[in-house]
Amino acid sequence: ARQCFHALKLVKRDSLSSTHIARCASTATVPRITTHYTIHPRDKDKRWEGVNMERFAEEADVVIVGAGPAGLSAAIRLKQLAAEHSKEIRVCLVEKASQIGAHTLSGACLEPRSLQELFPDWKERGAPLNTPVTEDKFGILTKKYRIPVPILPGLPMVNHGNYIVRLGHFVSWLGEQAEALGVEVYPGYAAAEVLFHEDGSVKGIATNDVGIQKDGAPKATFERGLELHAKVTIFAEGCHGHLAKQLYKKYNLREKCQPQSYGIGLKELWTIDEKKWKPGRVEHTVGWPLDRHTYGGSFLYHLNEGEPLVALGFVVGLDYQNPYLNPFREFQRWKHHPSVQPTLEGGTRIAYGARALNEGGFQSIPKLAFPGGLLIGCSPGLMNVPKIKGTHTAMKSGMLASEAIFSQLINENLQSKTIGLDVQEYEENLKKSWVWKELYAVRNIRPSCHSVLGVYGGMIYTGIFYWLLRGKEPWTLKHPG
Ligand SMILES: Cc1cc2nc3c(=O)[nH]c(=O)nc-3n(C[C@H](O)[C@H](O)[C@H](O)COP(=O)(O)OP(=O)(O)OC[C@H]3O[C@@H](n4cnc5c(N)ncnc54)[C@H](O)[C@@H]3O)c2cc1C
């Protein structure tokens, strides 16, 4: 028996060491997830020896990262204020997409409140809001049936007064307005690095280097990025921006909030049979193919853009419990539901994509202002989660940020403690605005979906506490986990 035991130990040791070798060998062949120099410093990499790393620097008053609804509204508001006060300010905006709006992916049903505040004459200016909502439908899906749910006035799902838009077109239009006002818009430039002053405040950003091989080595065409320095840098990267993540750490911005949670939104654009096309119709569903413990649902919007177009999509909370669930497959299954399939039959999918969404809501909003910088829009997660709407809140946050920045820029008696301006008024003003009230009122809806009743528990909670009390219940639910 002793000999057997000894033999077994030897076998185990041999097999362990061979597994270890196999593991080492496999990690050696796995490519690096990123070769970015902020993760793999170039000064320790021989391939970069002797490469000229000098960068040109430009000075602006305000630099904005990201030309989404938030960044563009901020840029526009700054220039509007400068014009009203006859001041010259330099506003530079960098966008990683090759064209403004090219990386935008949304639903989108737009609440025009912020647009109305930004451009009261948006209709005369030709804003591409071509489809007012005329019909609002909500349903619970079972495998075979659709149970209609009445949309009572005051519920988050009410869409009357809103517009169905192609958000990419709307963003592109905002870009034109910004340029007309004198904003320097730089599409095709990603902000790759946050720059800091010696006192720790944000100095600006550096745009991405170009001419780098996949493995991180410089090509013969290598060119260094550009530094953009500013008194204040606005970060408007949208959900899960990589610069915002660095800032959270550097300034401990998430110290007092709950962790952010995320969802994935899959979206397609179809041209359909004209007979099935109902411009202005908005449809949402919950239920099948998701079980009640998986947060998510669908949208189907009939656009009026000169051809029979529908925008459809499926959002799934990424805290789903079934590790085998595949959000994309669930979306495909949903399209085959008897209440959905007839609309798409005979149609053609002309575009598709996916984008992350913030789902933490009010509880997960970090600190928004820090020396030299501000976070706006979906970057810090200012989205109304049950409505799946964040464009109007993103725009308003950008406008409020600019108003606070502008009052510091023109304050001749301003004595800043840091080289980069610390615009705390932005956060204070946001807390006094309708954005804060709106996000506070819906704060408990998403976490209420974690009871035994799942999503249906959330619907009951919404009926009682949101519809009747407008979110005034004196408690705030936590996100689980
Ligand atoms: C599937 C889906 C459906 C939605 N439906 C609706 C809806 O019906 N109604 C509604 O109001 N909202 C909806 N939303 C949410 C809405 O799209 C967002 O709230 C809104 O786009 C947020 O605007 P933003 O400017 O903060 O961010 P974004 O729109 O994400 O814009 C950020 C911009 O920054 C750029 N960027 C990011 N990082 C960098 C960098 N380092 N350097 C340079 N540029 C950078 C990006 O390319 C992008 O253009 C939906 C979202 C999804 C995903």
Automatic annotation (TrEMBL):
Its cofactor is [4Fe-4S] cluster; FAD. Accepts electrons from ETF and reduces ubiquinone. The chain crosses the membrane at residues 451-469. Its EC number is 1.5.5.1. It catalyses: a ubiquinone + reduced [electron-transfer flavoprotein] = a ubiquinol + oxidized [electron-transfer flavoprotein] + H(+). It comes from the Eukaryota. This is Electron transfer flavoprotein-ubiquinone oxidoreductase. GO terms for molecular function: 4 iron, 4 sulfur cluster binding; electron-transferring-flavoprotein dehydrogenase activity; metal ion binding. Residues 262-357 form the ETF-QO/FixC ubiquinone-binding domain. The lineage of its organism: Eukaryota, Metazoa, Chordata, Craniata, Vertebrata. GO terms for cellular component: mitochondrial inner membrane. Binds 1 [4Fe-4S] cluster. Pfam families: ETFQO_UQ-bd, Pyr_redox_2. Keywords: Electron transport, FAD, Flavoprotein, Iron, Iron-sulfur, Membrane, Metal-binding, Oxidoreductase, Transmembrane, Transmembrane helix, Transport, Ubiquinone. Signal peptide: none annotated. Residues 61-110 form the FAD/NAD(P)-binding domain.
